[in-house]
Every structure is written in structure tokens, then in C-alpha cells.
Specification:
The complex is a heterodimer. By secondary structure, chain A is mostly beta strands. Helix content of chain A is 0%, strand content 48%. In chain A, strand 4 and strand 5 form a beta hairpin. The N and C termini of chain A lie far apart (35 Å). Chain B is mainly beta. In chain B, the strands form 2 sheets. A 5-stranded mixed β-sheet of chain B has the order 1-9-8-3-4, with no helix packed on it. Chain B has a 4-stranded antiparallel β-sheet with strand order 2-7-6-5, with no helix packed on it. In chain B, a hairpin with a 4-residue loop joins strand 5 and strand 6. The chains are: A mainly beta, B mainly beta. At the A-B interface, strand 4, strand 5, strand 9 and strand 10 of A face strand 4 of B.
Chain lengths: 116, 111
């Protein structure tokens, strides 16, 4: 079955450590996204990529970094510069559209990151 | 920026129809309206998308008036498993691929 796989489901980080969240898709989608969700709130866009080797900052990119070396993969690194990293992280993908938002996004089941 | 406003929460009972209205006064000419459903600890799931008039699929209907300044998601005969958060999104051409997921509407279905 085609879909998006995020791993791990739960992740714990010590203060001052960088951690990388994995996101893999086999939907042959060009566009991929990372969102952060805090309890009781909506999703906020961290980074997005429309095509391999290209990505743009979203609304809350500070303290995060990404890479897009392969079409199928869009890993997110939460750096030590992110002062409040505890959150639910969601990865999504979609068909690339000229307008950018008329193609539904397909989401993974998320990674919950906590600070020890 | 295109912005949406929807109720924070709604309660319903099994078998009833639930209608969630979303306001989007600044919708642009080419923007689409998309609704997602999210269960706890899961990623959102696409429900339905429309541009104008009415769209219906196997799970919901979407009603969009001629001025497109609002839209209504209709969930027919809800069950307990429809308890979730529902997000209304409008494409934002000024920000390319950036979409805004607001706080959504928490729908609680009771027996």
C-alpha cells in the first residue's frame, strides 16, 4: 500500500542534542511538508519542499533543518537551537501543483518528541 | 492572507447530521476549499475539496455559496467514530504552498 511512514513514533531527546525525524513516502509525490502540532492547537508549517534538492522555510523554521536529497525522503532535524521542541511532528506529501494548494496532502501518523 | 474562521466545538448525537460552517471572507479567485479530519495522535486525513456549488463523496458533502465567502461541511448520520477535529483550509496564493491549519472544530458525537 502507498503511504507515508514516519519514524520513530515516540522520540526522547536530552537537552542540547540534535535529533532527526524520518519521513518516507512511496506515493511518488513531488511535494513534502513538515508540521508541528502543540496540544489543542492546529498545525504549523515548519518547512516544505516542492521538488528534490529544494526546500523553503515555513512559519516556524527557526531551530529546525531539513534536506531533500531523494524524492521519497524528507528528514527533519530538530536542533539544540529549538528551545521548546516538545510537540507532535507531522509529515505530509502531495502532488505538485502550480497553484500549490489544490492537491490534498497525505499525512503520516506523526512522531511525538519529548525532552528528558 | 486567506484566513478561515470556524466554531471551536460542536456536540452531536449518533444518527444526526452535523454541519460545520467555515468563514473565509478573503478567499481568492483561484483558491480551493479543503476539509481534513484528525483523530488524536494521528495525522489529518483529507475529507473533501471544492471550488464552488456542491461537492459530495462517500463520507461528506461540501456546500459553497456563490460568493464563496463561506462553506459548510455536512456529515450525514454521524457515529461515535466521527468524533474528531475538523479543519477547513483555503489555499493561499500569496504564500505559495503555505497552508494554514487553524485550531479546527472539535466535533463530539455522543451515544
Amino acid at each position: 500500500d502507498g503511504g507515508i511512514t514516519q519514524s520513530p513514533k515516540y522520540l526522547f531527546r536530552k537537552e542540547g542534542q540534535n535529533v532527526t525525524l524520518s519521513c518516507e513516502q512511496n506515493l511518488n509525490h513531488d511535494a513534502m511538508y513538515w508540521y508541528r502540532q502543540d496540544p489543542g492547537q492546529g498545525l504549523r508549517l515548519i518547512y516544505y519542499s516542492q521538488i528534490v534538492n529544494d526546500f523553503q522555510k515555513g512559519d516556524i523554521a527557526e531551530g529546525y533543518s531539513v534536506s531533500r536529497e531523494k524524492k521519497e525522503s524528507f528528514p527533519l532535524t530538530v536542533t539544540s537551537a529549538q528551545k521548546n521542541p516538545t510537540a507532535f511532528y507531522l509529515c505530509a506529501s502531495s502532488i505538485r501543483s502550480i497553484r500549490g494548494h489544490d492537491q490534498p496532502q497525505h499525512f503520516g501518523d506523526g512522531t511525538r518528541l519529548s525532552i528528558l | 492572507l486567506a484566513k478561515t474562521t470556524q466554531p471551536i466545538s460542536m456536540d452531536s448525537y449518533e444518527g444526526q447530521e452535523v454541519n460545520i460552517t467555515c468563514s473565509h471572507n478573503n478567499i481568492a479567485t483561484n483558491d480551493y476549499i479543503t476539509w481534513y479530519q484528525q483523530f488524536p495522535s494521528q495525522g489529518p486525513r483529507f475529507i473533501i475539496q471544492g471550488y464552488k456549488t456542491k461537492v459530495t463523496n462517500e463520507v461528506a458533502s461540501l456546500f459553497i455559496p456563490a460568493d464563496r465567502k463561506s462553506s459548510t461541511l455536512s456529515l450525514p448520520r454521524v457515529s461515535l467514530s466521527d468524533t474528531a477535529v475538523y479543519y477547513c483550509l483555503v489555499g493561499d496564493r500569496s504564500n505559495d504552498y503555505k497552508l494554514s491549519f487553524g485550531a479546527g472544530t472539535t466535533v463530539t458525537v455522543r451515544a
